[in-house]
Recover the amino acids of this structure.
């Protein structure tokens, strides 16, 4: 039985701008959890700093709003302690590709069983529109009157170069597809990375709904090879959305821990006093 | 003088097997019924440089090193220049066959102090009894054993035990040790026999480092995850927990950096397990933002800060205690925290367990200070203390950040059986909702800081050792305190006030001692007297007389003896 979306609502009013992509993303997260029958208290979402992070107190789940760039390691620490709780890390393009880029790469190569949702609105919006690594090269931005002087990072290309076990791309203008992507990402056993292209009507007017509508094409099914997936995410004229690439052959980090293979409990169940007398024999 | 010592030092290059030599000798001495404390100096290099391994032997429990040694064994030619000045009068220097190139000054030192030089061709001796070149160190070991005048049985036992699982010719190793022991180069006038009596209690004692005791404390306390990133001198905690992980089931993760390690601890502790990380000053710098986050979000954390000397990279493999201010102030904003300082394996074991209890009960970051001299030196201890009962302070409530008199709000574990809540680094109201309201900010800030006062009530007073009517009372913590402790055995007119809990600070005893008219002397292994500054900040009392040492070396016994004799 799906859980109604209202169960994930609380009384706190959203503070996002009118037309902000975060409304749809937030609803899609709630809808995906509900349809997968994952109750609010079976979920933990870590939030970053920025507009995506401002959603932390506007959803009824277990949540931890941490620091800028750190929602991924915070989610990993949470996941390793208790795998019975579904863990999602939300983060913006600023936090993910600047302050916390190392965490993204290492999370993918470790393949923890968590879901990472990268909200890509191509700027630091909460601090009023500075350039991020996804802002187009040459675009005029806050404090950069002659345009940003660096090339941009393509999130899909970056993620695929780290050999992920799951990569998908969604769009805040299509919350139904986004819900399906989130559901697949949560169900996938391993580190699922989802890039969400997000409209920002205040600081990224160029990437409007119309602009996206002209370019977006849905993928029917994931690409079969990582090279095809890379070619697909690098397309300029079209933006492909959907599940881009999956590889179910990569074991998760936890499943590779030899000393945890036969354990039937989670780390949270194991806090008690341990007798060290046998270990002390080695010091005699 | 009620405490006697005999001191042996090996000097050579990194990679010459000095550690193995030192460990076998140390264990054999223990097996013979003597206490010993082993201290290592080594360069931040894999091969070469100058390294040493010093064993202070005593009949009593000691926890410090002497500046001088009675027997110096030189494994590489250059080490003589570094360590000759540490040989005490009537001492013995054993060196390999090649000629030593000594300066006039060095020759004078040898003459003036009546030091005997013995050249020993250990490789030739090893080959003569069908050993191999690599066994030359065993010849040396046998030779030193004879100088100490000890029975060969414990030595043979330890050698056999050390090499039993290794692919070596055990009988040849023993033959090499014996050829050293029976060398005709040993004359009666160079013997350095141990003159004090063996005690059976030391035979059964544990041979353990401070870091191993921290790791055992974590295991005992139910720490189920260790998040590592290598940094001397904290790294051997990672090694011990990793080496024992199949027995303990602890999850080991080497993180991509210290920021991650700290975040993983915070995430795991928030979910309701116990987790820890360990680092040194530079890594701790990176963890400070997370400590600040744990402070405002009221998330338990335990971090070991194993200190070494210097800013920047400093002198990575040498000791110091210059990071107290960092532990006290690291992290932006104002929030409660607890700082403890270990000084030996016994209190490392106990304090690590208490760190988890306090972190969980008070929902604060706890920083456990240690330093290289404690972390890596090998202590003999009779046993570890009894384990501490686990206290977690987990309770259900209506609001996660409820305002309370104690400052402690209800904290429950995310679970299918419990209501959800938001843990947050934003300033928040009682429900966790972000706030910018002036009264909310003040109310929540006050609530959090009340935890410091509640904690101050609970923690132990500093412990006083020594004279009831002292002329001088030292105040200190960490490894510097160990040296003072050893001095007390020789100076019954001296007192020592030893701190385990650094913050919140209990300072009343200092005021009380001052009121009785004793001279108060601050002792710290740093340049600016961090702890003295904290005492002044908290109590208004300034300790003007100070012993401060910041040359990368620990406080040696003679540093304090000389101070007292001046």
């Amino acid at each position: 039985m799906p859980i109604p979306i209202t169960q994930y609502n609380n009384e706190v009013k959203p503070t996002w701008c009118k037309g902000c992509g975060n409304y749809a993303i937030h609803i899609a997260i709630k809808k995906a959890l509900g349809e997968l029958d994952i109750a609010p208290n079976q979920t933990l979402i870590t939030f970053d700093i920025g507009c995506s992070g401002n959603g932390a107190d506007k959803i009824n789940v277990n949540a931890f709003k941490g620091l800028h760039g750190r929602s991924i390691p915070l989610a990993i620490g949470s996941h390793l302690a208790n795998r019975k709780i579904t863990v999602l890390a939300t983060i913006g393009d600023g936090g993910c590709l600047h302050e916390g880029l190392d965490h993204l790469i290492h999370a993918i190569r470790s393949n923890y069983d968590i879901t990472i949702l990268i909200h890509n609105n191509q700027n630091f919006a909460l601090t009023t529109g500075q350039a991020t690594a996804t802002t187009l090269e040459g675009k005029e931005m806050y404090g950069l009157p002659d345009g940003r002087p660096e090339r941009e990072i393509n999130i899909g290309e970056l993620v695929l170069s780290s050999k992920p076990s799951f990569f998908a791309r969604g769009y805040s203008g299509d919350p139904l597809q986004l819900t399906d992507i989130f559901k697949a990402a949560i169900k996938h056993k391993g580190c699922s990375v989802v890039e969400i292209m997000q409209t920002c009507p205040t600081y990224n007017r160029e990437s409007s709904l119309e602009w996206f509508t002209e370019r977006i094409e849905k993928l029917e099914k994931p690409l079969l090879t990582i090279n095809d997936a890379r070619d697909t995410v690098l397309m300029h004229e079209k933006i492909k959305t959907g599940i881009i690439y999956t590889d179910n052959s990569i074991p998760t980090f936890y499943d590779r821990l030899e000393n945890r293979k036969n354990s039937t409990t989670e780390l949270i169940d194991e806090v008690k006093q341990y007798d060290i007398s046998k270990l002390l024999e080695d010091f005699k | 003088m009620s405490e006697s010592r005999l001191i042996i030092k090996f000097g050579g290059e990194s990679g010459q097997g000095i550690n193995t030599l030192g460990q076998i000798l140390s264990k054999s001495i223990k097996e013979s019924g003597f206490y010993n404390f082993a201290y290592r100096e080594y360069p931040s290099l894999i091969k070469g440089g100058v390294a040493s391994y010093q064993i202070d032997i005593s009949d009593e429990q000691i926890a410090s090193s002497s500046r001088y040694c009675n027997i110096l064994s030189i494994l590489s030619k250059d080490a003589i220049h570094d360590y000759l000045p540490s040989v005490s009068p009537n001492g013995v220097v054993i060196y390999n066959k090649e000629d030593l190139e000594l300066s006039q000054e060095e020759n004078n030192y040898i003459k003036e102090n009546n030091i005997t030089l013995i050249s020993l061709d250990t490789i030739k001796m090893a080959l003569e009894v069908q050993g191999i070149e690599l066994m030359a160190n065993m010849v040396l070991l046998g030779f030193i054993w004879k100088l100490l005048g000890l029975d060969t049985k414990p030595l043979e036992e330890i050698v056999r035990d050390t090499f039993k699982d290794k692919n070596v010719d055990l009988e040849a190793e023993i033959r090499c040790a014996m050829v050293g022991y029976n060398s005709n180069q040993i004359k009666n006038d160079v013997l350095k026999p141990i003159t004090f009596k063996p005690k059976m209690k030391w035979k059964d004692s544990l041979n353990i480092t401070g870091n191993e005791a921290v790791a055992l404390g974590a295991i005992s306390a139910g720490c189920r995850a260790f998040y590592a990133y290598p940094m001397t001198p904290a790294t051997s905690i990672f090694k011990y927990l990793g080496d024992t992980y199949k027995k303990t089931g602890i999850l080991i993760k080497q993180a991509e950096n210290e920021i991650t390690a700290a975040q993983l601890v915070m995430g795991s502790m928030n979910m309701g397990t116990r987790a820890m990380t360990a680092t040194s000053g530079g890594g701790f710098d990176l963890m400070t933002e997370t400590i600040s986050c744990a402070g405002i979000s009221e998330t338990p954390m335990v971090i070991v800060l194993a200190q070494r000397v210097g800013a920047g990279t400093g002198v990575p493999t040498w000791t110091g205690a210059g990071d107290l201010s960092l532990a006290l102030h690291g992290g932006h904003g104002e929030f409660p925290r607890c700082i403890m300082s270990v000084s030996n394996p016994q209190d490392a074991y106990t304090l690590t367990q208490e760190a988890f209890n306090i972190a969980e009960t008070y929902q604060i970051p706890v920083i456990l200070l240690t330093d290289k001299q404690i972390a890596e030196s090998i202590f003999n201890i009779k046993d570890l203390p009894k384990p501490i009962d686990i206290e977690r302070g987990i309770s259900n409530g209506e609001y996660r950040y409820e305002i309370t008199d104690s400052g402690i709000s209800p904290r429950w574990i995310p679970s299918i059986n419990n209501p959800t809540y938001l843990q947050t680094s934003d300033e928040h109201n009682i429900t966790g909702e972000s706030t910018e309201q002036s009264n909310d900010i003040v109310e929540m800030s006050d609530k959090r800081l009340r935890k410091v006062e509640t904690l101050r009530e609970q923690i132990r007073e500093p412990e006083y050792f020594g004279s009831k009517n002292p002329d001088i009372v030292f105040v200190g913590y960490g490894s510097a305190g160990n040296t003072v402790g050893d001095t007390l055995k020789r100076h019954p007119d001296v007192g020592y006030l030893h701190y385990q809990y650094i913050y919140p600070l209990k300072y009343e005893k200092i005021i009380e001692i001052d009121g009785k008219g004793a001279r108060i002397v601050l002792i710290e292994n740093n340049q600016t007297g961090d702890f003295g500054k904290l005492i002044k900040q908290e109590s208004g009392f300034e300790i003007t007389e100070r012993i401060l040492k910041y040359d990368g070396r620990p406080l040696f016994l003679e540093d304090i003896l000389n101070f007292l004799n001046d």
